[in-house]
Amino acid sequence: MRKKKALGRLLAAFFLVMCASIAFAQPQEPTLADLPSILDHMLDNHYMPSAQVGLGSFTYTDTQLPTPFARWFEDELRLAFAKTAKMKLFDKQVAAAMDPAIRALYGDFFGTDRADSILYGKYAQDDRGVLVTMTLTDLSTGGLISETRYAVPASAIPSNVNVQPSVKMVQTAAALSQLFTSSGAGGQAGSGQQGAAQDFVVTLSTDRGQGAVYRDGERLTLLVTSSKDAYLKIYHVDVNGVAQLIWPNRFGGSGKIKAGEALKFPGPNDKFQYVLGRPYGTEYIKAVASTKPFATMEADFSDLQGSAVAAISRGLTVVSSDTTRAEALVVYEILP
């Protein structure tokens, strides 16, 4: 009798394991069931019947700041792409090409294997849920293919997914966005895409674009361009507000960037990679370019004393009074 009961429990456990395995093997269904058809309709007036689409970033309103909702919605888009008839997901990181300066150097950054278009957008919260504006752009010309608004009901959004950026994130981004007065800077910082009227522009993006959201274990790559030959510093500010100089560093980097150069960091010859993980939260990358050399060079990958703004500003003194400088900031989020 004991042997039969033991055998019964063993068979029951085996049955449960098999059921769990079968359920796990089933393709995951998107929560937003109508999203595939919405995506297909975005190509209704396009001259091509189908397209390979790269996935750009989604940020909160016009702030270019990330929140966990962005990654949740991007994951939903990936599930929806598997069910579209006209769109095929180009599953390589081309989001940085949202920046016109980087798009102009597409081949340098991304090679010849490319997507036809890129889908990106912004979102805002209201009483009923979240309204997402999705924009589809031709990647070679930058021309608009289609734009549509999609309402995500509040009931579909997991309770642990925040939609709005925190006050601390907004304040930190504002403080870091422009370290120079208008008389000393060559361009307005904050988005990494300064106005065309400025004669000195530095652009900065992650491989997932502006306001990207990463998960634990994913790698971060930075993409930088400059409109002038310049000296360049890149700083990292972690979730605790501690700043470090990360480029140039002991592993490489000349500390200079040429006009029109496509700088990728870490580069293919660098002996390290940025693998993101704990502590989770918001981090910042600040790039500062100067037409004259910087007077000091901080120790690389070492915590700088004081607030991030003060610590970075200390290292931006230059040796000439006729210096022109430009700056850019990118913000990203790390999730489990």
From TrEMBL:
<dbReference type="InterPro" id="IPR025493">
    <property type="entry name" value="DUF4384"/>
</dbReference>
<feature type="domain" description="DUF4384">
    <location>
        <begin position="213"/>
        <end position="293"/>
    </location>
</feature>
<dbReference type="Pfam" id="PF14326">
    <property type="entry name" value="DUF4384"/>
</dbReference>
<feature type="signal peptide">
    <location>
        <begin position="1"/>
        <end position="25"/>
    </location>
</feature>
<protein>
    <recommendedName>
        <fullName>DUF4384 domain-containing protein</fullName>
    </recommendedName>
</protein>
<keyword id="KW-0732">Signal</keyword>
